Amino acid sequence: MTLLQGRTAVITGGAQGIGFAIAETFVKEGARVVIGDLDLAAAQAAAEKLGGPDTARAVRCDVTDTAQTNALVDAAVEVFGSLDVMVNNAGITRDATMRKMTEEQFDQVIAVHLRGAWNGTRKAAAVMREQKRGAIVNISSLSGKVGMIGQTNYSAAKAGIVGLSKAAAKEVAHHGVRVNVIQPGLIRSAMTEAMPQHAWDHKMTEIPMQRAGEVHEVAGVALFLASDLSSYMTGTVLEVTGGRLM
Description:
The protein is α/β, with parallel strands linked by helices. The chain contains 9 helices and 7 strands. It has a 7-stranded parallel sheet, with helices on both faces.
């Protein structure tokens, strides 16, 4: 028996990077997945890679829009019959120092990460509480723990996700719904590999394991939190950082 056999998962920002790795891992463990992404074509391509309509569906979703997030979750229930796992992963960066950051850049990042996670958590919890079971996994960041230069918007949003998740976990625990958080560190992806070499090298000096993480290593932790292996865990924050800044 695979860990997520017969369960349905929704993953926002699931068309690429960490989100796609999570979707891929979940499918291998027996889940059916619905990928929500702002880029519908990319989401559809990802769903095809994961096995097509019997296994994976794609829905265009702007997570800052409550109606679209609700529709994403409703689509999972309508197509596959339940919602067992919700992964709030969608995110953007708009890095700049406070002196140079615009209000729009600040608001955009807060909206996608924090409001997006709240929209997804709220809707998923409403469905799961009726089922008396479910697991919500919110993706934060090491930046939300320690703060990073040029990321007052991102660090604030990712720290907020931790507080949001802990409060939500307390609200829905007695309904059988669990809410947990992952804080990835330096994970090898298209976004991180685009950073300047000097920035990459500096981050590497902070990692005791002396390497960047891979997306599948975050996905494995998401699988643990989504499955019954973590059945007595809620409101927890798991760092996937190679020991960086512990």
